[in-house]
Amino acid sequence: MRNDTAATPQAIFRKDYVAPGYWVDTVEMGFDLDLDATHVATRLTMRRNPDSAEKDLVLFGAELKTLQLRLNGVNLKKSAYTIDGETMRIPNAPDEVVLEIETLIKPSKNTSLSGLYASNGNFITQCEAEGFRKITWFPDRPDVMAKYTVVLRADKKKFPVLLGNGNLIEQGDLGDGRHFAKWEDPFKKPSYLFALVAGSLVCQEEQYKLGSGREVLLQVWVEKGNLDKTQHAMDSLKNSIRWDEERFGLELDLDRFMIVATSDFNMGAMENKGLNIFNTKYVLANPSIATDVDYAGIESVVGHEYFHNWTGNRVTCRDWFQLSLKEGLTVFRDQEFSADLVGTSTGRAVKRIEDVRVLRQVQFSEDAGPMAHPVRPDSFVEINNFYTVTIYEKGSEVVRMYYTLLGHEGFRKGMDLYFARHDGQAVECDDFRAAMSDANGRDLTQFERWYSQAGTPRVDVQTHYDAAAQTFEITLSQSCPATPGQTEKLPFHIPVAMGLLNSAGQDMPLHCEGYEAQAGVNSLVLELTAASQTFRFTQVTEQPVASLLRNFSAPVVLNISYSDEELGLLLAHDSDPFNRWEAGQRLATRRLVRLTQAVQAGEPLELDSMFIEALRATLNNDTLDPAFRELVLTLPSEAMIAEEFEVVDPQAIHTARQFARAQISQHLRADLLSAYEQHLTPGKFSPDAVSMAKRSLKNLALSYLLEWVDESTFELAKTQFYDAENMTDRLAALAGISNFRGQPQQQKVAAKALQHFYKEFKKEALVIDKWFMLQATAHTTDVAKVRELMTHKAFTLGNPNRARSLTFNFCNANPAQFHATDGSGYALWAELVIALNKINPQVAARLARSLDRWKKYPLHLQEKMRAALEKVAATKKLSKDVAEVVTKALA
Ligand code: ARG
Ligand code: ZN
């Protein structure tokens, strides 16, 4: 028998949650691994859940060929169960059930990369969220936790390595050229954490001593030829283990912890118990193939997956609506891990700024579009569409607000109580909030709205200084725009960290009515809970400049009208580095908006000297961390500028921003050159924070220098490209050269450099991804050029990393070209979404989201975007992943 996948997309609702009718105590599985036909025998011991309203025994299965179904030793007759879509119901089952299932699956045909699939001839699994049902019939929902024992059998030559969750308890030969391995996971787990890997792999391994003194085996498994790229992942893993012990008192609970890298992966990585599976992008690194950004990404993703062992695996989610319970918390933990590893306060601020930049650029945009959803959604059609920046990054901001409100100690108390109460359980976001509240004796009832209400709140600021009374009043008013299904919003509980600066830029002592003054503490967390609230400060001896939302203490838009002079003061002096950077961004945004309007009106373009001088002062300020200077000198992206407009004009924004960059290049020429020369990092490459900071400022200086066309800087870039001893410098130079608007002979040099790069790295898939990415985002790359690149022999839509490198980057990160006025970009987008839909619905649905914000564009573009969306919507056999995205966009 075969069951088909659901035909019409139907939403499921959080309010409809019903506890499972049956629990599963043990799962025993035997796999006869064969790429074309894998046989899976499963034995489940189940018992009725007396507390459930569900009386049937319910199982889920997808794309399975079912060979056998036996209940308590008896073959199940067809009349004994029903199948509707992915759901099998067995009515009238006894209270205690032993279910034996045999299924046949086809890994080599599985291009969705969900369930059991083949990658370069190896077996890989991905079961989150609902991939386990593509392996066997099972109550595949996160609140059903069971103990697993798994036997893997396969050809010994082709699949010498057989890995599973937990501990290896037996292995041996089966004769006939086959062998087996038996794995037992001592911990109960939901099915989404199941994993197996089988194939020809090699590993770097190490014995590691935990805080308690217990020895564990750490392994990083990769394909042959990649063992020279595993050291950084191994170091990151050890740092993660130590950090979780020190910061949260959480120790590794297994004797063995494995990381496996695969080049065919839909997302970043997966926290399967004891057997984390990673996209190669987040494992493989050495100086010649990986950039500083890659090194940082590996550290944070290795940390993220490791931290899930406690926040996700030991305590998991009751249902998928609670996804942010584990994801938001684990992102917060990985962000803190990376910040703590750098250690310095500006290092922490740099990390914070980078994280907030992503939040604002991607999550704020999601929150303002047709896919906007609360951190804890009320409904979804396809759960895979809800692994979003809202669940992850906004979810992390929500966790960070507890940290801001409760303090370091208070937050730790809440975490301790959360584990004490819920270890081994599948729980809800509300349980986390209750632990934070109860551990600290704090009423966090209103805080719940951060989970239930979508949209980015806006906080409007009014201030009033009374010189005679020496009082300063700050009135904060909050509102939140309507989002799909939610028109009215109630006030949020918003922590607003702040300080007051005097005219010399120093922090003033704070005496705020209703808040205890603390000697020497010049920063305060105001709690905004009403729609509008006034905070009154006394003993304010001069007119202050308010520094609000320090360290970005809440995921809101702060609307405050500063003068250029006030912003200049904040940029030069604020003791909060985040707000220093923020002041610079406000100065820049203001100018970029004006320049865009001037482009549209055909007026002359001008950039004022006040702004240029503020940038010069920052660039030359040697007391500032170079990484921080790089962030201040980087103009808001075109996507961020677009958010400032009701109606977006991508080409005008691009022209305006390029004009500003050229002006900066011209006026800061000498300063940029000297910044370049002062931040060279000769000698052996090291991905430490200090060297990375130098490279980032040096390469920013280079990219600015190249905006003002002259021979000598072009030569500088060319030399850097050919002489580079690391990928960070090489790629930065190549990007600069290929975006250079020079003479034909320089364009020839650029084409040659691109060719040279390809030849040198054609065996390194991750570097070829960069090669495509760089061209996808080049200013001169238009739709025709993308189509040409799609015919390159190294291009394929079948590999997610490769597909993303060219097509996603073009559609999402090259707005002036993608939004070509003839609509050719949208036509390309539709073709790609339709092609990907057949191969891999999850990847297709991600690309489908590139048109989310179509209603923000001028009418002539809107019409073309709507046509492209309708074309996709009308496609036959559309997956529910893509159907959900385009249906919501068109609604
Ligand atoms: N839990 C994984 C992580 O956060 C993400 C896996 C999501 N995969 C998916 N197909 N939806 O690291
Ligand atoms: Zn995660």
Give an overview of the whole structure.
It is a single chain. This protein has 26 helices and 31 strands. The longest helix is centred in the middle third of the chain and has 34 residues, at 389-422. Helix 3 crosses helix 5 and helix 18 (744-761) packs antiparallel against helix 19 (765-776). Helices cover 41% and strands 21% of the residues. The chain has an 8-stranded mixed β-sheet, with no helix packed on it. Residues 1-7 have low confidence and may be disordered. It has 891 residues and is α+β, with helices and mostly antiparallel strands. Bound molecules: arginine (ARG) and zinc ion. Zinc ion binds next to helix 3. Arginine binds next to strand 20 and helix 2.
List the helices and strands and how they pair.
Elements: E1 12-13, E2 22-32, E3 38-48, E4 57-60, E5 65-71, E6 74-75, E7 82-84, E8 87-90, E9 96-105, E10 115-119, E11 122-126, E12 145-155, E13 161-164, E14 167-175, E15 178-190, E16 196-199, E17 202-209, E18 215-222, H1 231-248, E19 256-262, E20 269-270, E21 275-279, H2 292-307, E22 316-317, H3 323-342, H4 345-367, E23 379-380, H5 389-422, E24 426-427, H6 429-440, H7 449-452, E25 458-466, E26 471-479, E27 494-501, E28 524-528, E29 532-537, E30 545-548, E31 557-559, H8 564-573, H9 577-601, H10 609-619, H11 626-633, H12 638-642, H13 650-667, H14 669-678, H15 689-705, H16 711-723, H17 727-739, H18 744-761, H19 765-776, H20 783-790, H21 800-813, H22 815-818, H23 824-839, H24 841-848, H25 859-873, H26 880-890
Parallel strand pairs: 2-12, 18-19, 19-21, 22-24, 25-31
Antiparallel strand pairs: 1-23, 2-3, 3-9, 4-8, 5-6, 5-9, 7-8, 10-11, 12-15, 13-16, 14-15, 17-18, 20-21, 25-26, 26-29, 27-28, 27-30
Helix pairs in contact: 1-2, 2-3, 3-4, 3-5, 4-5, 5-6, 8-9, 9-11, 9-13, 11-15, 14-15, 15-17, 16-17, 18-19, 19-21, 23-24, 23-25, 24-26, 25-26
The structure holds arginine and zinc ion.
